Fold this protein.
Amino acid sequence: MKSRIAAVQYRLRHINDWEGFEAQVNFVLNAAADYEPHFVLLPEIFTTQILSFMENDHIASAVRELSGYTERYTDLLRKHAMKHRYFLIGGSHPNLREGKLYNTAFLFTPDGEIHTQDKIHRTRWEKEKWNTDNGEGLKVFETPFGKIAILICYDIEFPELARRVSEEGVEIVFVPSCTDDRQGFLRVRYCCHARAIENQIYVAMTSTVGNLPVAGLRLHYGQASIITPSDFPFARDGIAAEGRINEEQIIVADVDLALLDENRLKGTTIPLLDKRTDFYGLRPQKISIK
């Protein structure tokens, strides 16, 4: 079975009101629908664009205030998922629940369901400037077009998370991301490649691009990519599709889920099958050398 993925490089720019945000979201999601994808991916915290017209210069309280737009944000994206009949990974959005602030990815289904995945690991910025909280649960979503999981940006840098969902049968990991410089972007990008190779899965990532007149969010460096295992049946260099760095665009690729099953048994290397689970519980032996 083949699944078509569309990943949006979303350009952050100053807007004057909610209607400006809604107009840009409508444009990119209608444009993505033209390619008839099964999955559409938006970047991490792309809704921070709303901060550009909010009158609050204190970033920690502004992000909490941004959570007040959650209902409008979910209504907007839910309508697109239902209208176009695709699964929409709606990037992520600050989500205030019971006094705690989470960086939450929202998954919208063609039937109008809304599911969530909180970011599990916080960056220093999220801890020190935004005062967010850690997510606690890791979810696997079974869809008609493959088993998927969502690891938000920094979470892909922790191999244990991707391994755990892969052991539960996940075939595609979606990584909404937001990074301000090349080094940060490459940390996420290189880890996406590693996770695809280690677990013989597809990894789709995308990033915010552009600039915002908001403290801590002024600069963005990003590129969307759809990454495959690195072996003969897959794309050259393990990249099914990628965008141009820091440009607003949509990339699209078909990924063959049947190839994953074959590669996990007959690949040049088969890391999922070869992993030494009996070994991982052992502590390294310490040797003193004079």
Remarks:
- The mean pLDDT is 93.
- The chain has one domain: 2-274.
- The chain has eight helices and 13 strands.
- Residues 2-274 form a domain with the Nitrilase/N-carbamoyl-D-aminoacid amidohydrolase fold (CATH 3.60.110.10).
